Each structure stands twice: as C-alpha cells, then as structure tokens.
C-alpha cells in the first residue's frame, strides 16, 4: 500500500512474485519494460534505455485513443539486483522538460518473491505526487501480471 511521507514524497511498497534479479531486470531490460511500463491501457511504442550511470532513458506512452506523453531521465545508480536510481520528468507541450523528480527503487528478497520499494521525490505539488501514485499503482498491476 502507498504511504505518504509528506507532501513532497511518494513511497510505495509492492511484493512481486519473482526473484529480485527478474524484477530488477523488468526495469532495465527494454523487452520486459515495454510489457508493463505505464498505467493500465497504455502502450510503449518508443523507448530508449542507456542503462549505465549517467545514461539517459526516455519512453513514449500511448493511450487507447492514440494520445501520447513523453517522459525521460538519467540513471544515477544501478546496483543489480538491489537498487536503481533515476530522474524523471515529463516533456511539456513546448518541448521543455517539466519538474524533475528522483526515483529510488529497491528490491529485497522475501518469501514469495521480491519486496519492491519505490521512493519518488521531491514534488512541488501534492496533486503531482498523487497523480504519480495512481500511475505507479496501475503500472505495478501490469508488472504483477508480467510475473503471473
């Protein structure tokens, strides 16, 4: 269940029915990422992952009506299979990058799979944090199905 630490921080824990190595790979392997990334009902028609510290990533998410949103960032830490840190910013209508947040995802072996913990910060507005909460929860439903 999501936990609100404060107005600027989103924290979500989810147990995924797969070992940490596989769950971590779902975040950095393009063939796996496109199967779950984005809220339910979205597809990933374009993506680029330069999975190394300092490497850039970007994805295009397309909804069922054909509307697209673009998000990108930079990898800050890659510690397979325990921890992944990267930045996140939506592309704005004028082509600029919007508010940038930093995401840390940790992976811990537990009975039945992996406890995955996402920490995203620092949001300037509660509404942005809450929109991301809904998006991540939906995306993690897709990630659950990947390992069913």
Automatic annotation (TrEMBL):
Please give the family membership noted in the entry: Belongs to the AHA1 family.
Task: Enumerate the InterPro entries for this protein.
Answer: ASHA1/2-like_C, START-like_dom_sf
Question: What is the protein name for this chain?
Answer: SRPBCC domain-containing protein
Annotated Activator of Hsp90 ATPase homologue 1/2-like C-terminal domain ranges read 18-148
One family from Pfam that matches here is AHSA1
